[in-house]
Every structure is written in C-alpha cells, then in structure tokens.
Amino acid sequence: MTNVTDSFVFLGHWPSAGSFGFNTDILATNLINLTVVIGVLIFFGKGVLSDLLDNRKQRILNTIRNSEELRGKAIEQLEKARARLSNVEKEADQFRVNGYSEIEREKMNLINSTYKTLEQLENYKNETIQFEQQRAINQVRQRVFQQALQGALGTLNSCLNNELHLRTINANIGMFGAMKEISD
User: Fold this and answer.
1) What start-end ranges are recorded for coiled-coil regions in this protein (predicted)?
2) Are 143 and 49 in contact (CB under 8 A)?
3) Which of 11, 58, 104, 146 is 20 to 30 A distant from 171 in Cα terms?
C-alpha cells in the first residue's frame, strides 16, 4: 500500500524533461487501478450503452422505413408518370402531323423531372440516414465519456484522503505551470 501512496506523493518530483523508460513496478503504474476502473465501467455501462444503442437503432430503422415509404411514393409517381407518358405517346400518334417535336420535348421534360424528383428523394433518404447515424454515435460517445469520468472521479475520491488529495492537486498544478512555461 505504501507503493500506491508513494506514487502520489512523488508526482511533484517528476522532471519536466528527461528520458523515457519503462516502470516495471505494477502498483506504481496503476495497472491494477486502471483494470478495476475499466471493469467497473464495462459492468455498469454495458446496460446503459445497450439501451442507448437499441433506441438509436429503432430511430434509424424508423427513419429508414419512412425513407422507404417516400421511395415507394416516388415509385408510384414514376408509375403514374409512365402511365401519363403512354397517354402522351398515344396522343402523339394522333397529332404527329401537327407537332411531333413539341410532344417529344414534353415527354422528355416529364421523364427528366420525374427522375430528378426520385433522385432528390433518394439523396434526402441517404442524408437523413447519415445524419441519424452520426448523431447516434455522438450521443453514445458523450454518454460513455460522462460515465467514465464519473467512475474515475468516484474512484479517485474514495481512494484519496484530504492530505493526499491536496498534495496531488498541488503537484498537478505545478506540472501544469511547468508545461505552460515550456509552451510559452
């Protein structure tokens, strides 16, 4: 137990510049503490993370269903446009003598506008899916970070007494001051 407290006591004695090396003392490197913290985070955070992911999955699936419905409506519009196209083609045979080129132009405009509408709906669906996925990822990251931070603070607060806590704070302030002087 003295090795653990010694590692906190000597935080102020770290040199600001020097060589790198491996510390083979397991208690001084806090490997066990990190393992315990990670284990607690996994144990307690697994359910919350699973619920968050399930909720996001349902929202994304709902968005996909809505997009598929919009796609279905666009396909229906395309079918209606094709039906109108066949009507226009029939009328074109009747009016071929008077204005064949005008009817062809109208047909192409109708097809182009329908395809543009379908393409816009497909792009909207893809953008919505990407947006929802990114939002879900960001929310999960934020929750995991908050839980990890709370767990780490809880562990630190339960392990430190007042005197050791003050020494650690002073040592960290000294290190940050030295880092600021070096960066300035």
Assistant:
1) 64-98
2) yes
3) 146
Sign of the Cα pseudo-torsion (65, 67, 69, 75, in order): negative
CA-wise closest residue to 51 among 145, 135, 131, 136: 136
In our burial notation (b when 16+ CB lie closer than 10 A, e otherwise), range 154-174 reads: eeeeeebeeeeeebbeebeee
| Whole-number Å distance between alpha carbons of 3 and 29 | 10
In the chain, alpha helices (H): 2-9, 31-94, 96-159, 162-183
Q: Tell me how far apart the alpha carbons of residues 171 and 6 are, in angstroms, rounded to a whole number.
A: 13
Which residue ranges make up each domain of the chain? Answer: 30-132
User: Tokens 């953008």 correspond to what residue?
Assistant: 127
40 Cα distance to chain centroid: 23
> Mean of the pLDDT values across residues 130-156?
88
Please give the structure tokens belonging to residue 75. 């396909």
Q: How far is CA 124 from CA 41, 63, 147, 173, in A?
A: 38, 11, 35, 51
Distance CA 4, CA 110 (A): 77
